[in-house]
Structures are given as structure tokens and as C-alpha cells.
Design brief:
With 545 residues, the protein is of the alpha+beta class. The chain has helices at 2-8, 91-97, 149-162, 165-168, 193-198, 261-269, 281-288, 322-330, 334-342, 376-379, 400-414, 427-436, 452-460, 474-484, 489-506, and strands at 26-28, 54-59, 72-77, 106-108, 114-116, 119-125, 130-135, 171-178, 181-186, 224-228, 234-239, 252-257, 275-276, 295-303, 306-312, 346-348, 391-397, 419-425, 441-447, 510-522, 525-526, 542-543. Strands 1, 2, 3, 10, 11, 12, 13, 14, 15, 16, 17, 18, 19 and 20 form a 14-stranded mixed beta sheet that branches. β4 and β5 (114-116) form a beta hairpin.
């Protein structure tokens, strides 16, 4: 159930931990604090396709970076590395640090799926039940040894057991017919294996037999190697000149742990670091105000491969009735929800996959991403007082963002007559309530989802691993099972559009917003761009001091 809870709702980077005993569930008045006063944050737009990436430049003090060494990029991250083992690391350690140390077989390529990395070519066999990957020859590990298929087999098997059994659980075997060929055999055909291996939280390839040594002494094939991991707040990487993609422009990277968001951005504005991860909306506003210390600082944004939605319990009345679910969905003002949730760092949206991804399906025609329907009850064919006084228990985890979302949602539902209140539950009670179906509504977070098989199957197939709200529809099941095995991308997209039409008709999940990735870097950093899958790579970056 831990895996379930983190997928139903999780923090951006890592689960919060506490040694304190669980407090009792906390019922809150959802109309206090956030509710109706929130900005629409883009809710007036005509569709749900935001600008994919935007950059703003503002301005700084004299020559603040003069004391930083040439050729080394200084990067500020919010969390110190928990481990250097890529199959165990979480959050920023994996996405911002270890992405530069390790490579994958394939890697995401914008909206077009995946592109070659350690594998030059791959193809499905037996309708996608077997996938054959041909490895690059001459790829070197940081210690000088040469990569071969046995390393890849070890990595996939290790990741299956240690990191992501839900994604690789159907891998029945990994075969190595020769040193530069790997065959991954699945229990049944599926089209998205390359996407699963290459996504932002994909399978890092590590040396065969490396095991726990990776925690403190990692060896990868990436563009940078770990030079010094002994500091409590700093981690140093050095350029790997024998990288298969060519030597990096930088001589090295120094990561500094700066936990406070404002302090991290102050360090960037002052020229103490060159790049900062996860800029908050409040800090971003200082840039928009034109404060002088922001000269030569660039703020970049891009929708993350994540979506937040709510689910109504289909095993409880009246939420099992489609018109009731339709009325609640029609009452939602997504702009207000997005602003309450992340204060300018989220894009309202009606779809599961964010704009800019290959399988993004736009929202219904004529409906903006942010606004609600004028007459929610009438639109659903219900009488004006059909929901008057009906109690709704909205279960949310004990997390600041979830609290704000729950508060704003409940306030909007009270506007159509419901007695809607949020119930904040500590982790163990939250998981128990999900398992027992002890809720009327709950929040769902789809994180690191770019492929529709992951996005729709787990929460919406009747036997999906994370279908906690009891949605059952034979037509949806049949389409999802068919689409999972379709290899042609266009045919696959058409199948998922059919599934989405049915899912919308049933109001099985109601999508609310896509978090935005917001990062900052100095204008003298060139060649950097925010990657759509959330990982951070510096191999093409240079710094001119």
C-alpha cells in the first residue's frame, strides 16, 4: 500500500517522513483560506494548450560570478543526495544529479517518444512480446571498462526488484545472445516498453555486479563522473572525456544543497550559483516585478509530465451515478484550483497527459481549461436542489498542496448545495482509507506519466493497480487492453482517443491541473533547456564567466 499511496498522491520529489505518531484525521472547513478568492491563473484561455516553454530575462549586480572557477557549473538543489545508487535514489538526486552520471538504453525525445542512447537500434518481435536492443560498441564506463549486454541485463533485473516492479513486473526474462545485443521478453505484448525504460525515472544502466557499491562509489557511462561525494552540502562531478556522445563542454559540476527556496534563488541572483532547481512561484514573482538583482537571470517554465485529478468513489451512492459525477465536474473552476495548489506554478487542464506530449488529447471543444460550467446541475440534467445538504467526505493526505486543493474543491462543491468537507489523514490512516474505500472523493496524482498505458490503465482499468475509486467499465477495459499492444503510434493514439471519449462520458476521473517545472539560470549559461520529462542534463551546457 505504500506504493499505492505514493501514486495516488505523492510529494513532488520524495515522501515526507516523520517519527511522530500519527495524529487523528483532521476535518477542515474547506471554505477557509483558499476557496473562491484564488486567481483563475489562466482559466480564461480558450483551450488547455499552454505555451510549452517560456523564458523571462531580468537583471543583476556588477560581476557576481567573478569568484567562481572557469568551466565549472555551480548548481543549487533543494535536497542533499540520499544515495548515489540510481535504482534507489529519489527526487532531485535522481533527476538533477544522477542523470548526468548514468545513461539509459533510450531517452525521451520531446513529443516523439524516445531516441537512441546506449542502444543504437531496437525493434519489437512477436508483436511486441519480445524487444531486441542493439547496443553501441565501444561505450566505456568511468573506470575504463567496456559496456556489454550483461550489464544491461543486470540493470533491468535489479531495477525490476529494487525500483519499479509495477513498471517492469511483466518482464519474464532478459537474454544476451551476444555482447552487444539484449532481448527483453515480456509475459504478453506491449508497445510502451521502450518508453518505460527511457522515461525520466527510467532504468539507469549500471555495471554488472556493482550492487551496494553504487551507494557511495558510483560508476556510470554518463557525461560526468563523481569526483567527490564526501561533503555534507556539496557533491562534485568531473567531465568524462571518453563519453560515447563526446566530451562535455564543462570541466565539471558542483551541486550545492540549499534547502530554502528563497535562499536558493537569492544565491542565483547574487551570482553564487549558475543554476537553481524548482523555483517557487513566489520567487518567480520577484523577477516579474523587475527587481534589479534579477539582471542576467533567466526563468524558464515547462509543463511537467504530471497531472492532478480527483476521483469519486464509484462504490458509494450517489457518486456511482454518472449525472452526479458530471455535476461535480461541471462545478470545478480549475484556474482557482491550480492557483490554490501551487500559486502560479501550475497550468489548469482537463486532460490526463499535459500539452507537449505525444499522446496529449485536447479537452472538449468550447471548454476552457480553467472555467466552470454556468449551470452545473442543469448541464447534468439534475434538479436545482438535487444535491442540497448531501454530505461529501473528501479524503486528502497530510500534505500542504493536497490541503489547499481539497479546500478549494470543497468550497466550489458547496456552491451547488453539497455539504462538502475535507478530511486530512496522516499517512497510515490515508492508506487504510484508500484500501477500504472509506471516502466519497479523494485526490489522484499521476507523476512521470508520458505514455498513455501508464496514465490510463493503473487508475481506470477495472483491475488497475491504483483504481482505488472502483471504476468499472467493460468498454474502457477492452480499449485499454487493445491499445497497450498496438505498435503503430498513430493507431495507438486513435485507440486512446476512443478510451478517453468513454472515460469523459463516464466522468471516471476529473483532471484539474499540470504542475509546472520552473527553473532559473544565469544568462552566461548557454546550451541549457528544461527537458519535458523532468530530468536535468548538462552535457551540452557551457558557462562564460
Amino acid at each position: 500500500m505504500v506504493v499505492l499511496a505514493l501514486l495516488v498522491w505523492g510529494c513532488d520529489d520524495a515522501a515526507l517522513e516523520s517519527d511522530a505518531p500519527d495524529p487523528p484525521d483532521e476535518a477542515t472547513d474547506a471554505g477557509t483560506g483558499t476557496g473562491e478568492a484564488g486567481s483563475e491563473a489562466g482559466g480564461g484561455t480558450a483551450d488547455d494548450d499552454p505555451t510549452e516553454s517560456q523564458e523571462d530575462t531580468a537583471g543583476a549586480p556588477g560581476d557576481p560570478s567573478a569568484d567562481l572557477p572557469e568551466g565549472v557549473l555551480f548548481a543549487a538543489i533543494g535536497d542533499a543526495p540520499d544515495t548515489l545508487d540510481p535504482h534507489e535514489a529519489t527526487g532531485l538526486t535522481r533527476l538533477a544529479v544522477l542523470e548526468n552520471v548514468y545513461d539509459r538504453l533510450v531517452e525521451p525525445n520531446g513529443v516523439d517518444g524516445v531516441e537512441p542512447a546506449l542502444a543504437e537500434r531496437w525493434e519489437p518481435v512477436d508483436g511486441g512480446q519480445r524487444w531486441v536492443f542493439e547496443l553501441r560498441e565501444g561505450v566505456r564506463w568511468h573506470d575504463g571498462a567496456e559496456l556489454d549486454g550483461h550489464d544491461v541485463r543486470y540493470s533491468i533485473e535489479r531495477a525490476k526488484s529494487a525500483q519499479q516492479p509495477d513498471r517492469l513486473g511483466d518482464v519474464s526474462s532478459v537474454e544476451v545472445p551476444d555482447e552487444h545485443t539484449v532481448e527483453v521478453v515480456l509475459e504478453e505484448p506491449r508497445a510502451n516498453l521502450p518508453a518505460d525504460l527511457g522515461r525520466g525515472r527510467g532504468v539507469a544502466i549500471v555495471p554488472e555486479g556493482s550492487g551496494e557499491v553504487l551507494r557511495d562509489d558510483p560508476v556510470g557511462t554518463g557525461p560526468f563522473a563523481v569526483a567527490d561525494a564526501t561533503g555534507a552540502t556539496e557533491l562534485e562531478l568531473e567531465a568524462f572525456s571518453d563519453h560515447w556522445g563526446g566530451a562535455p563542454e564543462l570541466d565539471g559540476i558542483t551541486y550545492r544543497t540549499v534547502r530554502d527556496d528563497t535562499a536558493r534563488m537569492d544565491a542565483l541572483a547574487a551570482g553564487e550559483v549558475d543554476w537553481a532547481h524548482r523555483v517557487t512561484a513566489e520567487v518567480r514573482a520577484r523577477d516579474a516585478d523587475g527587481e534589479p538583482e534579477w539582471d542576467d537571470v533567466i526563468i524558464g517554465t515547462r509543463p511537467r509530465p504530471a497531472t492532478v485529478a480527483y476521483a469519486l468513489n464509484h462504490d458509494r451512492q450517489p457518486w456511482a451515478e454518472a449525472p452526479v459525477r458530471e455535476a461535480l465536474a461541471a462545478a470545478v473552476r480549475r484556474g482557482t484550483i491550480a492557483e490554490a495548489a501551487r500559486r502560479g506554478a501550475a497550468q489548469p487542464g482537463r486532460t490526463a497527459l499535459p500539452p507537449g506530449t505525444r499522446y496529449h488529447i485536447p479537452g472538449p471543444p468550447g471548454l476552457g481549461a480553467g472555467g466552470a460550467t454556468a449551470d452545473p446541475l442543469g448541464a447534468a440534467g439534475l434538479e436545482e436542489d438535487a444535491l442540497e445538504g448531501l454530505e461529501l467526505d473528501l479524503l486528502v493526505p497530510d500534505d500542504d498542496e493536497a490541503r489547499r486543493v481539497g479546500s478549494a474543491l470543497a468550497a466550489q462543491w458547496r456552491g451547488i448545495g453539497l455539504d462538502a468537507r475535507t478530511r486530512v489523514a496522516a499517512p497510515e490512516r490515508y492508506e487504510s482509507a484508500l484500501r477500504d474505500g472509506a471516502f466519497d472523493a479523494t485526490l489522484v496524482r499521476l507523476e512521470d506519466h508520458r505514455d498513455p498505458a501508464d496514465t490510463y490503465e493503473a487508475p481506470l482499468h477495472s483491475e488497475g493497480a491504483h483504481n482505488v475509486h472502483g471504476f468499472v467499465d467493460e468498454e474502457v477495459d477492452a480499449i485499454l487492453e487493445e491499445a497497450r499492444q498496438i505498435l503503430d503510434p498513430q493507431e495507438r493514439a486513435e485507440a486512446y482517443e476512443r478510451a478517453v471519449d468513454r472515460i469523459r462520458e463516464q466522468h471516471a476521473l476529473t483532471y484539474l491541473y499540470h504542475p509546472l517545472e520552473i527553473q532559473g539560470w544565469r544568462a552566461d549559461v548557454t546550451g541549457y533547456e528544461i527537458r519535458g520529462e523532468g530530468s536535468v542534463r548538462f552535457e551540452d551546457v557551457s558557462v562564460e564567466r
